[in-house]
Specification:
The chain is elongated, with a radius of gyration of 10 Å. It is built from one helix and no strands. With 23 residues, it is mainly alpha-helical.
């Protein structure tokens, strides 16, 4: 499940770099 792991990492990276849009 490398794809799933990559998506999870990408999501965390995006959240770390960009501010949370949800507030």
């Amino acid at each position: 499940m490398e794809a799933l792991a990559f998506l999870t990492w990408l999501k965390r990276f995006a959240e770390a770099e960009l501010p949370t849009e949800e507030g």
